[in-house]
Amino acid sequence: xxxxxxxxxxxxxxALALVTSVAxxxxxxxxxxxxxxxxxxxxxxxxVPMLHGIELAVEEINxxxxxxxxxxxxxxxxxxxxxxxxxxxxxxxVREGVIATIGFCNxxxxxxxxxxxxxxxxxxxxxxxxxxxxxxxxxxxxxYIFRTQARDAIQAPFVVEDLVRRGWTRVAIFADxxxxxxxxxxxxxxxxxxxxxxxxxxxxxPLGVKDLSKELQEARNAGANVIFSYTVGxxxxxxxxxxxxxxxxxxxVGGWPLSFPFFIEGAGAAAEGALMAQTFIAEPSNERRAAFxxxxxxxFRQPLKVPMVAAxxxxxxxxxxxxxxxxxxxxxxxxxxxxxxxxxxxxYYGVVATHERPFSRDDKDAITxxxxxxxxxxxxxxxxxxxEDARRxxxxxxxx
Length: 400
Fold this sequence. Notes:
Blueprint: H1 2-17, H2 20-26, E1 31-37, H3 44-63, E2 72-78, H4 83-96, E3 100-103, H5 107-120, E4 124-126, H6 133-136, E5 145-147, H7 152-166, E6 171-176, H8 179-193, E7 201-205, H9 213-221, E8 226-230, H10 235-245, E9 252-254, H11 261-267, E10 275-278, H12 287-300, H13 307-325, H14 334-342, E11 348-349, E12 354-355, E13 373-378, E14 381-384, H15 387-392
Parallel strand pairs: 1-2, 1-3, 3-4, 4-5, 6-7, 6-8, 8-9, 9-10
Antiparallel strand pairs: 10-13, 11-12, 13-14
Helix pairs in contact: 3-13, 4-5, 7-8, 10-11, 13-14
């Protein structure tokens, strides 16, 4: 892979420039990096691909010497998709002496744990959770919270723009009562308001609900001509199946969870045609993406169920490694890594994006709207909704 070859060359050049005595003294010591996410339970559908993306990147980095002979060592904690468990496991990572952490998929779980990393002054890179408050809760200049996922504040307007272009302006919003659903609802309402629109209907529901026929009938009676869903689990399938059972043929759109197996497999034929925001679609449209998909298939020998999060986690691991090599004395304090992430000296040619200064002191989100494409469920998989997006995807976008 071109990115790996570039990293290998850079590592060799940087090694010559670093102080030899520091490297020799620390050579055998592994560098501990925390990983946290839902690796069991309902949210493991997207937590495990996140973990796999990180593991693949670490394997590649260690194969070319890690940091001057010091391997990267993952310290993995399962937050089970539960806020209080996530908080407890985050505290464990701090006690384990990790230098930084990559993780979180559930917005509510992430929000419960942000202050653990902020107070410890340990960088956290979030490749999965899209809830806008994750990087908006703490003022950016002092924040140790970075993200390589498209936040909902850009996903929602991107999807709303597509709806308006298609003439679907009577929007029924179905949002769960988690932190993700709450934040997503606000983002969709704001995106509609920016275009002078209001939701035709709003339905709220808890995770685990099995029947939304009443709420769907109410949305139908309100004259909705599209359903915009904001939930992370099987409830997306519950919406699609309920819509089918009502004989209501309106389209279904949403954020990236509509690309999850929970929805595509759970709803079956009822998922066909659903539209969602994506940063990465698993088609070998260029060398970087083809190499990533091939390497993932060789290592894990199983289908890549949520390609977007695996690719973002993979890129996050490389961005953290680039930051480490920007620290010339090998002292990986939290403030030093934070500053290095905010001032990356080299371009990282990633899978999702070409990351040139992805972060700064005042901006902790690496993904911008130009990196998004509209995905569509077709024959049980996610592909490009528009041919022009497939053509544009030949070129990996940079931050704007």
